[in-house]
Write a structure and sequence with these properties.
globular, four-stranded mixed sheet, 4 strands, alpha+beta
Length: 216
């Protein structure tokens, strides 16, 4: 992949999240699916739909990783998404959804969220960090944000971390006002309904990790 696309900033093969690894092992996924060379808007929108990048299947340029400061020290969540998005802003991302790794996931039984505010929410909310982004870049990141913020905010509310949820809503306001307004509305949703919604979202994310085969 690197030889075919020598100038990209990030490369990633496909992965599968599954609750039944033995069944998936029997499903041979050796057919070549082809490389997708994505600019930042295309990458952010694809990443919003499914996890096209995963730490188990990714390769990045060492010098580029150093230039963005590496993974942020002390970040409690969102540090991986932050790195992939930052590298995507620097140049093209190459993805091939042929499965090369399998991640065993338990069937969701409760809605949980990692503590704190995702680091990329914080970084992209700073105007100084957005000044070199085009309008198309900002719209694409807003699309990515809309796919993640509500679920993360809802999980924080369910865990009693209302301050985190409010802070998420405030940070999102700077880049996606409509999403921020929707996040505030989550505080008014009854907990049983909110929990059910979170579980449905997690099951959808689990199913959506299955690679999308091309027609060829």
């Amino acid at each position: 992949m690197i030889e075919r696309n020598p100038n990209a900033e990030l490369y990633s093969f496909g992965h599968r999240r599954t609750t039944d690894p033995q069944r998936v092992l029997q499903e041979a996924t050796n057919s070549y699916l082809g490389d997708q060379v994505l600019d930042f808007p295309s990458f952010a929108r694809a990443y919003a739909r499914r996890d096209v990048v995963n730490s188990s299947t990714v390769c990045v340029r060492k010098e580029s990783l150093f230039q963005i400061g590496g993974f942020p020290v002390g970040a409690l969540s969102g540090e991986d998404s932050y790195v992939w998005l930052r590298l995507g802003l620097r140049g093209s991302v190459v993805c091939n959804e042929q499965v090369q790794a399998m991640i065993e996931s338990r069937e969701p039984t409760e809605a949980t969220a990692r503590p704190g505010v995702p680091y990329h929410f914080q970084w992209f909310s700073e105007s100084k960090n957005r000044k070199n982004m085009t309008d198309e870049h900002l719209r694409a990141y807003g699309h990515f944000l809309s796919s993640r913020a509500l679920a993360i905010c809802g999980g924080a509310i369910l865990e009693g971390r209302r301050k985190d949820a409010l802070r998420i809503s405030w940070l999102v306001l700077r880049t996606a006002p409509l999403v921020s307004f929707s996040a505030v509305l989550l505080f008014a949703i009854p907990r049983p309904l909110l929990r059910s919604s979170q579980l449905l979202y997690r099951r959808w994310r689990l199913r959506s990790s299955q690679p999308q085969r091309s027609a060829g």
